[in-house]
From TrEMBL:
One of its GO terms (biological process) is sporulation resulting in formation of a cellular spore. This is Stage II sporulation protein D. Residues 54-143 form the Sporulation stage II protein D amidase enhancer LytB N-terminal domain. NCBIfam families: SpoIID_LytB (TIGR02669), spore_II_D (TIGR02870). InterPro entries: Bact_Sporulation_Assoc (IPR051922), SpoIID/LytB (IPR013486), SpoIID/LytB_N (IPR013693), Spore_II_D_firmicutes (IPR014225). GO terms for cellular component: outer membrane-bounded periplasmic space. It comes from Ureibacillus chungkukjangi. PANTHER family: AMIDASE ENHANCER, N-ACETYLMURAMOYL-L-ALANINE AMIDASE-RELATED.
Amino acid sequence: MVVSVIGFVIALFFFPFLFLKSDSKSEAAPQSTAKTAENACALTITVSGSDIPLDLEEYVIGVVAAEMPAGFNLEALKAQAIAARTYVLKSTNYGQTPIEPTVAKQVFYDEDSRKENWNDSYEDYEAKVREAVESTRGEVIEYNGELITAMFHSMSNGMTESSANYSGTDLPYLQSVASSDFQYADNYETTTSLTIEEWNSKLNIQSTIEDISQIRLQKNNTGRVETVTMKDHEWTGRDFRTLLDLRSTDFQIKAQDGQVVITTEGYGHGVGMSQYGADALADNGLTAHKIIEHYYKNTSVEKINCKK
């Protein structure tokens, strides 16, 4: 459901019964696949567009490298590895179906991409990411003995989003929790300015700059926009975010100097683990397992059930 901050979140940085629709990194919906992997210790993953299956752990290395900055704390990278491993096994039924290397699922960088992105830091970053993956080899997140839908996002707005708010599906392990990552992110708040012509084009409406004063934003208990209304138009916060290509659904809108100014906080759908939050927790001494425990309530980290 790294590279520069913006690069990784776009690369950033979330299924069989789908959330209403996917709008950002790992934003697919939960599923209830039973844990029935044959020869789980020798699992392979096929990335869409390639006919060559990858060893599960090699695949996870490529995901961690793409989804989280390698400069992050090692414990945060470990938490990302556990979440990524859980996500791919859940969404592909233990490797039985391919997975797209996109923000709608999990971004994946092969070795050539990692070399290109990391340049002179390749050897150090490659070793660090491999250490994070190897030290968590075979670890997955479970709730009541089943793999969870391990959604994650770039940075929260101070609170993560619940699955109930996001999709209407209430999952006990995807509840809203405090996440202070905004204190650590340089680009936590962003501002976008649109001309009224750009605004009308993106929303496919006809409005004036004066109409902006009539906009009403209904926010939920985590500060994210549920609905946007203006005159006889109404959008969900998620649809509005997609139409205007905003970084999150926590936004404010105003008219200023003849333009529409939109201020957005956080980055991503907000459900599950915040990557910047994980790094902040790791910097404050939490281990990868404690980070997982914080963001995915009432879960446990277990080894893949390998059949002899």
